[in-house]
Amino acid sequence: KAGVTQTPRYLIKTRGQQVTLSCSPISGHRSVSWYQQTPGQGLQFLFEYFSETQRNKGNFPGRFSGRQFSNSRSEMNVSTLELGDSALYLCASSLGGGTNTGELFFGEGSRLTVL
Amino acid sequence: AQRVTQPEKLLSVFKGAPVELKCNYSYSGSPELFWYVQYSRQRLQLLLRHISRESIKGFTADLNKGETSFHLKKPFAQEEDSAMYYCALTYSGAGSYQLTFGKGTKLSVIP
Questions:
Q1: Which residue of B has its CA nearest to A100?
Q2: Are B35 and B72 in contact (CB under 8 A)?
Q3: Do A102 and B101 touch (CB under 8 A)?
Q4: pLDDT of B95 above 90
Q5: Per CB distance under 8 Å, which residues of B are interface residues toward A?
Q6: Own/partner pairs for A22-26, CB < 8 Å, 24+ apart?
Q7: How far apart are CA B39 and CA A63, in angstroms?
Q8: Residue A98: pLDDT above 80?
Q9: pLDDT at site A101
């Protein structure tokens, strides 16, 4: 079956702009998580959605937001971009719910560069 | 707050030599520990989890609660083991799995 798909794969924005990243999970997976990966901080948890509800949120400012649709697809949005937001944004899906094994299936990521 | 520490950024070993990738964690409750791996030009993927107590691709990891460690070991390294390895911790809360990752160790196996 198809893996986790993230779009766009690469994008360049300027400070102050906003960006929306999209993630399509593996079919049947109801949980979608987002992570930010940078050379300095490594992989950091942003938030997790399950059945259109945010279940967990990491320690990021309110400029970072997300949502999940009824088909489990998810988007994350970053407003008022800062240079420090340049990173690889990874989406991961899992079964979620009581059958969750804790295994996350990651996408290839969206690489955001803020100039 | 939970934390995962991988003290080595880079580990180089010769083919056939034993490998040990170190991982220490801090968490006051009962954690679940994982090792994720990223091979060149591939996605991050799960290698093994402590609750399964399994060996994957010859790798094993034992959770030592006394030393708060979850080191990854393999008796004989292969060239195809060269990759980035991440130790990760989570706790189960309402079925939600929020992973805390270490910063990773790059394993390089020298032919």
A1: B95
A2: yes
A3: no
A4: no
A5: 32, 34, 36, 43-46, 49, 86, 90, 92-104
A6: A22/A73, A22/A74, A22/A75, A23/A73, A23/A74, A23/A75, A23/A76, A23/A91, A23/A93, A23/A107, A24/A73, A25/A72, A25/A73, A25/A74, A25/A91, A25/A93, A25/A105, A26/A1, A26/A2, A26/A93, A26/A105
A7: 32
A8: no
A9: 67
